[in-house]
């Protein structure tokens, strides 16, 4: 355990002691009753049904009632409630999740994979920089498993996994419901939400459940009027392609894009599941889920250079993202064993536009490529508008199959065996457009016509992966109180990358392509990860456990070969040692779980852009890091009408080796050993409480949720291509709600971000203006919910 963590032990112990003391004191005047016991939570964290308190894993679970009460609509809302998790997003349809401090800050659509696996029911839907992020409605529960989960959940479950489990059809029962929400953002626009579901029996042994939603997210960022004059000093003495002297620095304006509250998003979706009970032992569930997102604008602002909730953008920013998931699950009994087959198919298409106008102005982006020089030498006349528009056209496909056999859970010796197969592909066409390029490029003094006249740089490639894995777990009760388990997973991961990445001054971009400019690479990784756990039940309500576990994320391929960074990068591995306690106290009214861990992250992957090495973003295995921490979560039923949920996490995550941007320059240390890993707050805690009371013979409630997120850094290091490594300030968010409810309906008034905090969720150090993603400003809303049975 690190000295830094030990030095801060009072910071950890005091809030923990305070939380327990407050809970105990609050209970002094409350009579213990069986009815006050907390509800048992059933999970499938180990591929079988278990009580959460019997699973020797640090985990957090939000059930359907909690998700509804707390207004969770997406992964961003969910992550805010979990102390061990941090979520960084640049807007709808994008984002990266980090758990327990494991973050290099360099995950990218063109580089390193995420190290947190996200599952939608049985299918992994993890995607680099663009998690699937389904709308959260009619969800049975969300399970979050902290620490390496690679043996049962495979690739990317390196630091943890998130499982979004939808509600399934209920045979023999009709039910339906809908939710309506209207909200208004302080200094912003108005939004709305409409959700509904219906569960319809089909005969005596089948049912269908249909869910639909439409979410209008209101804008609160203004694109204000602005202009910019480019710095051409370094080429001002030269000549343009027509032989004319370059006389003046060009100026651009954004007059036609000025708009208030221009960051808007519309999400629409539908989900349908059909279940049939073939007999008492076998069930088949088939499903389809479709979601479409259309968004405009940006979700970060530039408070220092422009103003609060304001930016200056010179080209349109937009994102269209749509996906369809098909699923089939067959479950049944073979004797006292359970056999499960789960198959899924995911098709996703997205198209983004982003303003890159000022990206290459050297005054704002030190080390940027010579866009303007290229613009002049390629054109037959002066380049009057050097602004850049970035477009990204993506198509994802993912098909996977898993089959597993689980033994009876009533025996001392229990086991799981399974196999997993996946084929995945990602086709991406990324283009950087300069409108004033007039369609000619010069090579050897000869002009060459081009088909796409305004493209300055393009990456048009196809990435495909194929993985085969076998896994198993054996668990044995040594005594009635002591259990040991061991699990392992063997994986064989193939990756291929083909296509082109380059700029217009290479003639092969538009004519016959040669090996010198094409990418055609392959890699193969074969390895295994394991996990060992021992648990001891001190009483029926208190269990302690210890775990040694490994997690991994696959390697990959770069767009180009570089002298400093190779064509491929290897998998990286996380090894964790954890000790924890799970307890239910005070006659079932207090659930208190805690864990302490130390993790070693070996040869981790980092994606980076550094033009001193390459104009391309490249990924490399760069060194070692560690993450030590303590986490706590609990629930306390203070009285029949009052409950409190709380959580706390402290993380000390640092490099354990000096980091060199260029491995060939050993004397240029970019980040020394001991540097804090980025995008991970050292302290995060939250508390939620709900109190029920009577108003005119009606049930009513008041609810609050408070979250503190500590300081963190945005990047691992500063480079010549970025504005630097910045410390992001700590921030606090308070959400409040009050309402009335009956068995059939409820109505509430809520205030999100009640203090109107301008949080520094993420400082985008890779952008020329260091825009800051902030929490949505204070939002007032009304929500009405009705159920039919």
Give a short synopsis of this structure.
With 789 residues, the protein is mostly beta strands.
Describe the structure.
The chain is mainly β and 789 residues long. The chain has one domain (3-788): Maltoporin, Chain A (Beta Barrel). Helix content is 6%, strand content 53%. The protein contains six helices and 44 strands. The protein has a 22-stranded antiparallel barrel. A five-stranded mixed beta sheet has the order 3-8-9-6-7. Strands 18-43-42 form a three-stranded antiparallel beta sheet, with no helix packed on it. Strand 24 (440-443) and strand 25 form a beta hairpin. It is globular, with a radius of gyration of 27 Å. Mean pLDDT is 84; it is low at 5-33, 234-241, 367-382, 440-446 and 507-516.
Number of domains: 1
The rough form would be described as: globular
What is the total tally of β strands? 44
The helicity comes to under 10%
Offer a few descriptive terms.
789 residues, mainly beta, Maltoporin, Chain A, five-stranded mixed beta sheet, 53% strand
């Amino acid at each position: 355990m690190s000295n830094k963590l030990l030095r801060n032990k009072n910071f950890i112990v005091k809030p923990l002691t305070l939380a327990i003391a407050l809970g105990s004191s609050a209970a002094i005047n409350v009579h213990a009753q069986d009815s006050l016991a907390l509800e048992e939570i059933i999970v499938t964290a180990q591929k079988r049904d278990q009580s959460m308190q019997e699973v020797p894993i640090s985990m957090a679970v939000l059930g359907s009632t909690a998700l509804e009460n707390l207004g969770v609509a997406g992964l961003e809302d969910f992550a805010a409630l979990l102390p061990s998790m941090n979520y960084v997003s640049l807007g709808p349809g994008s984002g990266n999740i980090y758990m327990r401090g494991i973050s290099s800050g360099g995950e990218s659509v063109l580089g390193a994979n995420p190290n947190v696996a996200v599952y939608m029911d049985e299918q992994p839907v993890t995607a680099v920089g663009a998690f699937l992020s389904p709308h959260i409605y009619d969800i049975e529960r969300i399970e979050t498993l902290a620490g390496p989960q690679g043996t049962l959940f495979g690739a990317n479950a390196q630091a943890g996994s998130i499982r979004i489990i939808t509600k399934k059809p209920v045979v023999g029962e009709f039910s339906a419901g809908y939710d309506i929400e209207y909200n208004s953002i302080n200094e912003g626009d108005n939004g709305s939400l409409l959700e509904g579901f219906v569960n319809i029996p089909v005969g005596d042994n089948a049912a269908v459940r249909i869910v639909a939603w439409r979410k209008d997210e209101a804008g609160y960022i203004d694109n204000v009027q602005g202009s910019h004059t480019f710095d051409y000093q370094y080429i001002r003495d030269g000549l343009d392609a027509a032989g004319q002297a370059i006389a003046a620095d060009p100026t651009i304006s954004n007059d036609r894009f000025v708009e208030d509250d221009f960051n808007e998003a519309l999400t629409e979706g539908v989900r349908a599941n059909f279940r049939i009970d073939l007999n008492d032992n076998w069930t088949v569930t088939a499903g389809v889920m479709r979601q479409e997102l259309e968004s405009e604008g940006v979700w970060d602002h530039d408070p220092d250079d422009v103003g609060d909730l304001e930016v200056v953008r010179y080209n349109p920013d937009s994102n269209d993202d749509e996906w369809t998931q098909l699923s089939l699950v067959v479950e049944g009994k073979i004797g006292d064993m359970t056999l499960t087959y789960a198959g899924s198919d995911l098709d996703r298409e997205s198209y983004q536009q982003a303003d890159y106008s000022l990206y290459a102005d050297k005054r704002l982006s030190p080390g940027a490529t010579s866009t303007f020089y290229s613009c002049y030498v390629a054109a037959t006349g002066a380049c009057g508008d050097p602004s850049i528009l970035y477009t990204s056209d993506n198509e994802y496909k993912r098909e996977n199959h898993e089959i597993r056999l689980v033994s009876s859970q009533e025996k001392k010796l229990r086991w799981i065996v399974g196999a997993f197969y996946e084929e995945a592909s990602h086709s991406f066409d990324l283009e950087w457009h300069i409108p004033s390029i007039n369609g000619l490029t010069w090579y050897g003094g000869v002009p060459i016509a081009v088909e796409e006249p305004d493209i300055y740089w393009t990456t048009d490639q196809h990435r495909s992966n194929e993985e085969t894995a076998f896994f198993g777990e054996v668990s044995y009760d040594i005594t009635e109180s002591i259990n040991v388990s061991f699990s392992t997973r063997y994986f064989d991961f193939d990756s291929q990358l083909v296509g082109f990445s380059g700029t217009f001054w290479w003639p092969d971009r538009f004519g016959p392509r040669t090996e010198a400019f094409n990418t055609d690479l392959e890699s193969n990784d074969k390895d295994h990860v394991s996990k060992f756990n021992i648990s001891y039940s001190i009483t029926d309500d208190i269990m302690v456990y210890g775990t040694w576990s490994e997690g991994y994320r696959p390697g990959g391929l770069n767009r180009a070969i570089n002298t400093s960074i190779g064509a491929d990068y290897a998998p990286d591995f996380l090894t964790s040692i954890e000790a924890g306690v799970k307890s239910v106290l005070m006659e079932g009214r207090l659930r208190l779980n805690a864990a302490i861990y130390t993790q070693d992250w070996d040869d981790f992957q980092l994606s980076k852009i550094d033009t001193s090495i390459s104009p391309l973003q490249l990924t490399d295995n760069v060194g070692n890091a560690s993450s030590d921490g303590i986490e706590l979560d609990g629930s306390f039923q203070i009285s029949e009408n009052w409950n409190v949920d709380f959580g706390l996490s402290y993380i000390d995550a640092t490099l354990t080796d000096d980091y060199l941007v260029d491995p060939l320059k050993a004397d240029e240390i970019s980040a020394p050993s001991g540097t804090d890993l980025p995008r991970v707050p050292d302290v995060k805690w939250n508390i939620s409480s709900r109190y029920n009371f009577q108003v005119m013979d009606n049930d009513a409630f008041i609810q609050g949720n408070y979250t503190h997120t500590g300081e963190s850094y945005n990047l691992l290091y500063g480079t010549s291509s970025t504005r630097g490594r910045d410390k992001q300030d700590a921030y606090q968010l308070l959400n409040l709600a009050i309402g009335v409810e009956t068995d059939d309906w409820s109505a509430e008034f809520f205030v999100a971000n009640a203090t109107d905090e301008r949080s520094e969720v993420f400082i985008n150090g890779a952008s020329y203006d260091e825009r800051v993603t902030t929490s949505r400003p204070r939002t007032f809303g009304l929500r009405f919910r009705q159920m039919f049975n």
